[in-house]
Amino acid sequence: MKGSRVLVGLSGGVDSSVAAYLLKEQGHEVIGAFMKNWHDTSVTISDQCPWAEDSADALMVAQQLGIPFFTFDFSEVYRERIVDYMFKNYAAGVTPNPDVLCNREIKFQEFLQAAEKLGADYVATGHYARKSVQEIDGNAVYSLLAGVDGNKDQSYFLCQLTQHQLQKALFPLGELRKEEVRRIALEQQFATAEKKDSQGLCFIGKVRLPEFLQQQLKPRRGTIIRLEADDVLQAVRTPDLPDQSEWHLLSDEQLDQLCSPAHFDVSSGHVAGHHNGAYYYTVGQRKGLNVGGTPEPLYVVHTDVKENNVFVGMGQNHPALFRQGIFIPSDEVHWIRDDLRLSCGSHAAYLARIRYRQPLFPVMLIMRSKGLYVLFEEKQKGVAAGQFAAWYRNDECIGSGPISQ
Length: 405
What we know:
- The chain has 405 residues and is of the alpha/beta class.
- Helices cover 25% and strands 28% of the residues.
- It folds into two domains: 5-214, Rossmann fold (3-Layer(aba) Sandwich); 222-402, Translation factors (Elongation Factor Tu (Ef-tu), domain 3, Beta Barrel), CATH 2.40.30.10.
- The longest helix is centred in the first third of the chain and has 20 residues, at 98-117.
- The chain starts with a strand and ends with a strand.
């Protein structure tokens, strides 16, 4: 692999800068490239133009390293596959994860195709993740592994990658910790050495989400309804469950009951305030409700975009915040390790997370004809439809899928 031609995605941040440096030090022929994913002013993202600054920083790093530099304009495909997808999902009351989609659709698809046209053997990014390869039945099988730095591990954002994409990917930072990356950048005097980590959309920059959504999802005044904990406990009763070792024996009807979110209507509680659009809110959200006067903070526990109602509960332990499991339709279930794919009627114990940086927790995966049921050993809080559930075996990400409504 030494001496391979590698196209590095230079985002204008410290991580990708150090990734490019390390690859060059390893003897690869390194090419830098910035992905321009947005320049459509018809949909305002912010008053600033962060991608222009990031592109300039990426160019400076490439010049310091003495490597060729390209800019690829993926804005049209990004709008179609990421931004339009976001609007469509928010309008339906679903909270999408654009970073997971950007990796699947842009960085490791469009960018990979651009790399192949340049004759590159691999693409590389500044993700804190690792990969390994083993031979199974005469075939090379690639594994996606968590980064060594547990605080920065980004394997969750890569949970939709395929075997081909993993084969062509390099993650130079996977064995490093963030402080080591900063140290290397400072030693090399990169312009990005002390730049803050990006908190925005993939290769776009910081986005004020409510303003962004309002460009196409116009404000609609609606009602905030507060649910009392005791009323929820009476209305939503979890069926008696067998021992966890026998969960796979449950019927589809029982699994549906366990993995379907609770639904409420206006009669379930009392009016606590008003909002400007149910699609601006997501389950588990605490800020932005503008409803005070309660001993503990209010959390969004359910949204109804059709009736334009937002349901809230007081306190982080409100029972409506918790679920026993989730469902992923069969056509949405993705396996990184196809050799570990569950056949219909089979089950397996794994670890999982349903959001970035969440500690892994034990689950049972049960595959049925219509999809995959993921039952939690302990109920989980703030489960949002549209987010990705990713399951792991130790530090290896095995598969993933978007949480169904």
